[in-house]
Design goal:
The protein is α+β, with helices and mostly antiparallel strands and 121 residues long. It has a single domain, classed as Immunoglobulin-like. Helices cover 18% and strands 45% of the residues. Strand 1 and strand 2 form a beta hairpin. The radius of gyration is 19 Å and the shape is flat.
Length: 121
Amino acid sequence: MNGKDENAPFDSKLIENWFEQFFLDPLTTYLDKTVFRIDLFETENEFIVEALLPSCQKENIHVAVNGQELSIKVKDHKKNHPHSHNYKIRTVTFPMSIDELKIDTRFEHDILEIKLYKKDK
């Protein structure tokens, strides 16, 4: 026995996973699959953003902060057309302003880590 009900008209685990992905945050799930994945973390003094950028080169990444928004722009070379470029962009809006003068970034093993410090009130 494999634990599945052979008489069931559908795979209940598959349906459950789909509902979780769709209803918990459908836009984020869609962007993670079509643009690039990001994970967000918050501590008392900072926000940490991790972007998964496989086979990306550091010089093709641009990070910009404006008030409460962080934008990550990645130049994507098309494989069939090496001289044409596409850009993939993700923008995150935070619940408070970010200190634009105090940002730490690191890019290792296809992961871009950005530490954004919360602006003092």
